[in-house]
Structure formats: C-alpha cells, structure tokens
Amino acid sequence: MGEARFKPGDRVTVRKAYPLGHIRTPFYIRGHSGVIERLCGTFGNPEELAQQRSGEPKQPLYRVRFMQKDVWPDYRGDPGDALEVEIFQHWLE
Amino acid sequence: MKDSGNYQPYNYFQLMEVSLRELLVEKGIVTEAQVAAAVQEMRERTPELGARVVARAWVDPAFKAGLLADGTRACEELGIEVPSLKLVVVENTASVHNMVVCTLCSCYPRMLLGIPPEWYKSRNYRSRAVREPREVLAEFGLVLDEGTNIRVHDSTADMRYLVLPMRPRGTEGWDEKQLASIVTRDCMIGVAVPASS
C-alpha cells in the first residue's frame, strides 16, 4: 500500500502529464497548485484497474482545494470561491 | 390491423447493453433475475432517502456531527446502506455554498438520490459548473448572497458528495417528516436551497 506522503494543509501541484488510458485526473486541473483538504483513504489505482490488473499497490486519494481565480485567469466570481477535486497521490508533487 | 406503436430501433448504447447482458447471462455470470433485481433496487432509491438524512441532521446535532465526520456510517445508523462507496457530506453555511459535479462522467450519490437527472450528465453542466458556477446557479434560479463563497466539488474518484443545506427560517417546530418534505434533490446537489413555503 502506498504511504500517504501529504497531510492536510500541504501545498501540492498536480503533475502536468498527458498519458493515455483511464485517468481520473481532469485535464483542466493538471499543472495547478492547491492545498490538501483531507486524505480520503487508499483505493485501487483506477489506471491499473481499467487494464484488468489488480490496482495494487493501492494509492492514497486526497481532496485538494484550489482557488478558482488560480485555475481560471478570467474567473468572474468572488476571489474566495474554491474548487475541490479528488486526486491520487501519484499525480501530486 | 392498425399499428399505433411508436417503434424505434435500438440506439448504439441500448444495443451494447442488450448484447453484453445476454452474453453475461449465456455465460452464467449473472441471471436475468439478478439483473431485474438490481434494476428494481436502483429504481427504489429516490431523493427521499437523502432528504431523511438531511432532516435528521437538522434536528439532531450529534447525528449531524457524525454525518460530517463519516457520511457512510451515519447513513447506516439510519438503516440506509451505502454499499462500497464513501459518502462525503458537505455543509452549507452563511459563508459557504457547496455544489457537486462530476466533470469526467456522472458520478452521483445514487444510494441516496437515485438516478441522476439528465442535466447532471450533460456536457453543458459538467463543463460549466467548475468554470462559471455562479452563472450556472443563476440559471437554476439561485443567486447567492454577497459574501457567500462557492465551493464546487468535482467528484472524480471514489468519493460521493451530498450537500447538507441550511435549515431555512420559518421551520421552527417542524418535525422530521415535514422538514424532509422541503429537501429536494436539487438542494442536495447544491443547485437549489430549501424554502419554508
């Protein structure tokens, strides 16, 4: 099982990578930085499961909070608006 | 003989579903009865389940604390099974309004809200909810107070999200059943808020 490397409050950046396959990291959030809101637990790696493999080692899954104005430069709402996305640890650095 | 039926050929996905189902049955992996039972089970899940959970949280602070800490376990306390998924309940307050989307597909807390509405699965909602949530809410008729921040939850992996709305004014003294009656599906997705009248 993958050890959790991050804790709530840590600042993280989503890897800017574009591998093929079943990826649960949305395109729009790749390359952006946010803060760990919580560790959700560890789950089978969907990229492996989609290939009919075991999904092991399981990956820690986090909810990461991003500020809307950081993600969308032309964001028109309040600067305090946020966006939370579940991201697996191997996508964070 | 007059034929008034409106027959349509299967579309691509319907054909795929039938083919796959027949194959699984033929190979003995599932039975027709199991498929029918699973469909029935899904149909019986309606937003009334979610509304019961919200109403209980409004009247019982200890339940609410447990619900926010571990949504799955709190639902089980009410006798609502939340199989194999982790439920995260997010609470609306005077300063934060939550809304839920799945930009990648259509992940949805089906065990509490049943089958998702068509718009939840539409490309329009999925792409715009994360980018211009205030405009999307306005189209649902919801304009937030100045000073209320929006928190959009993109349901991308193994969690499922339920919004716990604020209990509206004018509901003092209501029992759980009355309270549940004003908690609509859209309130629990976060595109509406409950009203007392």
Summarize, please.
Chain A is mainly β. Chain A contains two helices and four strands; from the N terminus they run ββαβαβ.
Architecture blueprint of SSEs:
The complex is a heterodimer of chains A (93) and B (197).
Chain A: E1 11-13, E2 33-43, H1 46-49, E3 59-67, H2 68-71, E4 82-88
Antiparallel strand pairs in A: 1-2, 2-3, 3-4
Chain B: H1 12-26, H2 32-44, H3 47-59, H4 61-69, H5 71-77, E1 86-91, E2 96-101, H6 110-113, H7 118-121, H8 123-128, H9 133-139, E3 149-154, E4 159-164, H10 176-181, H11 185-189
Parallel strand pairs in B: 1-4, 2-3
Helix pairs in contact in B: 3-4, 4-5
Commentary on this structure:
The complex is a heterodimer of chains A (93) and B (197). By secondary structure, chain A is mainly beta. Chain A has helices spanning 46-49, 68-71; strands at 11-13, 33-43, 59-67, 82-88. Chain A has a single domain (11-91), classed as Roll (SH3 type barrels). Chain A has a 4-stranded antiparallel β-sheet with strand order 1-2-3-4. Chain B has 197 residues and is α/β, with parallel strands linked by helices. A two-stranded parallel ribbon of chain B has the order 1-4. In chain B, helix 3 crosses helix 4 (61-69) and helix 4 (61-69) crosses helix 5. The mean pLDDT of chain B is 93. At the A-B interface, strand 2, strand 3 and strand 4 of A face helix 9 and strand 3 of B. Strand 4 (82-88) of chain A pairs parallel with strand 3 of chain B, so a sheet runs across the interface.
